[in-house]
Amino acid sequence: TEVIQLLLKDSIQGAIINRKLTQEELKMFESKKRFPEMVRIAIDGVAFIVHPSSLDTSLTTDQIKAVMSGKAKTWKEIGGKTKGNINVVIDNKASCNARFIREEFLQNAPIPENFFATEKNEDVIEYVSSHPEAIGVISVSWLSDREDATAKAIRGKVKTVGVINDKNKYQSKMARGPYQAYIYDQSYPYRRDVYAIRTGLKETVGTGFVSFLAGEKGQLIIHKMGMVAAKSPVRTIKIKQ
């Protein structure tokens, strides 16, 4: 939310966010004789994390919907093995994760009362790692870079929740974790596009950076970081039994 406001005020002329600009926002730019460029550079996922001791590491889409909509407030209500109330932790009420929950599960209604907002993703991870009854909501990109020291440390503190989606064409009863392959083939259901947005003049550093991100080298860097590049290098392997 803050990033969008800065763009509209012309305090910044470039941003990377998890959505396109709305028609209303585009009209505001046009009134200033600005014509933003929006380039899809990656596909991100929303990951649900739990305490390392949790036995509830596989949930169905219906169970997740019940929790994220506020209808289920205890683990018992969704048939979980964890005891106590469910404390849902998000990074910030104005973040893209909070917006995702409102759009995906709440039809843009307010966040439920049993949700707890911190200031940043690191706080979500720390809270979940010390509260066995909690479930956290973070971006997949915090977990997916296999070589990043921060991502390695995070994976040692929490577990990710695999999602069973009966709408999957193949192996609908198998839980899919928030991993690159499952985000790419869309069998992991909680995905969102990432856009690089430029609002400044052409032939500037911002334009060059957006072009780099969308180009071959930029896409390879995004892929290596563990996110799904918009132009992913794909290798198909056929296994014969």
Characterize the structure shown.
This protein is of the alpha/beta class and 241 residues long. The chain contains 10 helices and 10 strands. Helix 4 links the parallel strand 4 (87-90) and strand 5 (115-117). The model has no long low-confidence stretch (mean pLDDT 90).
Counting DSSP E segments of at least 2 residues, the number of strands comes to: 10
- CA-CA gap between termini: 51 Å
N-to-C SSE series? HEHEEHEHEHEHHEEHEHHE
Mean pLDDT: 90
**Which range best describes the helical content: under 10%, 10-25%, 25-40%, 40-55%, 55-70% or over 70%?**
25-40%
Biggest pleated-sheet summary: 8 strands, mixed
Can you describe this structure in just a few lines?
The chain has 241 residues and is of the alpha/beta class.
List the helices and strands and how they pair.
Blueprint: H1 2-8, E1 14-17, H2 23-31, E2 37-50, E3 58-60, H3 61-68, E4 87-90, H4 96-105, E5 115-117, H5 121-130, E6 134-139, H6 141-144, H7 149-155, E7 159-160, E8 162-164, H8 180-184, E9 191-198, H9 205-214, H10 216-224, E10 228-229
Parallel strand pairs: 3-8, 4-5, 4-6
Antiparallel strand pairs: 1-9, 2-6, 2-7, 2-9, 2-10
